């Protein structure tokens, strides 16, 4: 990993984001879906990592299809001025009524999920006297977003509903992609093939991370990976082939030794059963460290596991460091929350959630350091100047 561009000397906690690993993950997915192309899902601030630097790094690497969930997310990326002219920016949730002019103003492509969203976009086309591009999403079994089979029939029977709307992509979404053996994958795939035949020539996109990393003959035209780009596991019960993208370090703020019988933290839910060394770290649930880790999760100090003792507070966590060698324990000593000993999947498991939630909740109080090989950073600066 490259030398950081800045070292926040007094930071309580530092989030490192490895843009080279991000790009490597995007290339891994690209190879898995080839000859289809890999886009990137950068919704929710690129799963908490920062939509602008993530989009920029992937655009520099050649990614041309970016997916966000909300119009405001698309506007933020547009305003940053980082998208190449030939890049597409899709809004997965489509538009709320009245959002059409703002969407058109930034040249984003709404994903139209129902007949009402199609009518809103078509009405906007009539009002502006021109044609606007859109993606069409169909529901193939997840019952979340997308045209129902009946709505698809209506659309085929009444093609005038699409007047002024230029479909550029047909989409659907897999419900069980993280389990390659789930029968739903096959039935959704078949439904998508069937519906795709009704829209001849229209490029298609089905696969999220899990779908993209499933072995199968075809991945349609564009994959929409999110979590795997950011180092999350595409499949729940398999070895994770992705490179980790985030590491999170913090430091000890205070140390103490408590006698047997002394309690720790809110509710005194941890009670020492031996003379116990307690280290307090300045990260809490306000920083996205789940309160569900109370009494369950861990941190690592110089590679030694330090279990969380007691409840996670808003701004701090207490660790039982009794078994950590004393030379690693001092105010300011480094503590690993995410790194070589514990990844996002491990923390998610301890907290009873998924890595997506760990990432998207990462807080805004961390010092953030973006890592990229000097060469890539240099290319980016040149591109910015040009
Ligand atoms: C979030 C999302 C994705 C990305 O899913 P991952 O599991 O993170 O790869 C793809 N498509 C749609 C429609 C989504 O909502």
Structure in a nutshell:
With 386 residues, this protein is of the alpha/beta class. The protein is 30% helix and 21% strand. Residues 1-6 have low confidence and may be disordered.
Q: Any chance you could write out the topology, listing elements then pairs?
A:
Layout: E1 13-18, H1 19-33, E2 37-38, E3 40-41, H2 43-47, H3 51-61, E4 65-68, H4 71-80, E5 88-91, H5 100-105, E6 109-112, H6 115-128, E7 132-137, H7 149-157, E8 165-171, H8 183-196, E9 204-205, H9 209-212, E10 222-223, E11 246-251, E12 254-258, E13 263-264, E14 270-271, E15 276-281, E16 298-301, E17 304-307, E18 317-320, E19 334-338, H10 344-351, H11 355-360, E20 367-371, H12 374-385
Parallel strand pairs: 1-20, 2-10, 3-4, 4-5, 5-6, 6-7, 7-8, 8-9
Antiparallel strand pairs: 1-11, 11-19, 12-15, 13-14, 15-18, 16-17
Helix pairs in contact: 1-3
Notes on the protein architecture:
This protein has helices at 19-33, 43-47, 51-61, 71-80, 100-105, 115-128, 149-157, 183-196, 209-212, 344-351, 355-360, 374-385; strands at residues 13-18, 37-38, 40-41, 65-68, 88-91, 109-112, 132-137, 165-171, 204-205, 222-223, 246-251, 254-258, 263-264, 270-271, 276-281, 298-301, 304-307, 317-320, 334-338, 367-371. With 386 residues, the chain is an alpha/beta fold. It has two domains: 35-230, TIM Barrel (Alpha-Beta Barrel); 246-371, Lyase, Ornithine Decarboxylase, Chain A, domain 1 (Beta Barrel). It has a seven-stranded parallel sheet with strand order 3-4-5-6-7-8-9. A four-stranded mixed sheet has the order 19-11-1-20. The longest helix has 15 residues, at 19-33. Bound molecules: pyridoxal-5'-phosphate. Pyridoxal-5'-phosphate binds at residues 41, 43, 92, 173, 208-210, 224-228. Pathway: Amino-acid biosynthesis; D-alanine biosynthesis; D-alanine from L-alanine: step 1/1. Keywords: Isomerase, Pyridoxal phosphate.
